[in-house]
Amino acid sequence: MKVVVLTGAGISAESGVPTFRDADGLWEGHRVEDVATPEGFLADPELVLRFYDERRAALAHVGPNPAHVGLAALERVLGDDLMLVTQNIDDLHERAGSHRVVHMHGELLSSLCVRCGRRTPFQGDMLGAPPCGSCGKGDLRPDVVWFGEIPYHMDEIVDALVECDLFVSIGTSGAVYPAAGFVQQARAYGARTLELNLVASEGTHFFHEARHGRAGDLVPRWVDELVNP
Ligand code: APR
Q: Catalytic amino acids?
């Protein structure tokens, strides 16, 4: 059976990583337009670099939860028949043991050089203008897909959506496209579709089945059902 899993901020919430769409509409006290758009970066690069430096440093204080661990266990059973696509820029799937994570919105632990275009593994702070690991110049930006930019790996993801038998969306509000549209694409090509989320997402009616609760409870239970039918 071929499975595509899409994860969002909700899967990391129980690890202590804040989600984006909290009641006050702010992300860690900032307007999303100020810290997650190319225009925001042009207007105030220091603010944006500091913001992502703080998010990167915060990774040291969080760890994977049972939902991440459950998906790593699923990868060990399904191998290449599982595609794990995440909108998250944290590395909690990898730290739980998943090896083939598709980061469609980029990664905190990667830099993008504005000068040479290379993406390079990155630790530490970007605010002091460290040199690019590839061209040696100092024009790094966070390797994060901002609003108005094109997500990574879309061809690979669409191929997997067309081929999969089961599409599962975990911990995402269904507010941001193209990820919010994956359920309809998978369903149009014949997949069964399942939502696992704290509450009904904006697209909950597109799914064949929706289960509501904490990812740390729902995901291990669903993985167990799938591998021990
Ligand atoms: N278990 C399961 N779901 C949860 C939990 C939990 N413990 N806590 C919160 N959720 C759900 C919320 O109910 C919400 O539907 O997770 C979802 C998180 O939604 P968002 O904050 O909108 O995050 P996400 O869907 O990942 O955002 C998509 O938007 O800001 C951009 O690029 C950013 O990748 C991000 C994209």
A: 105
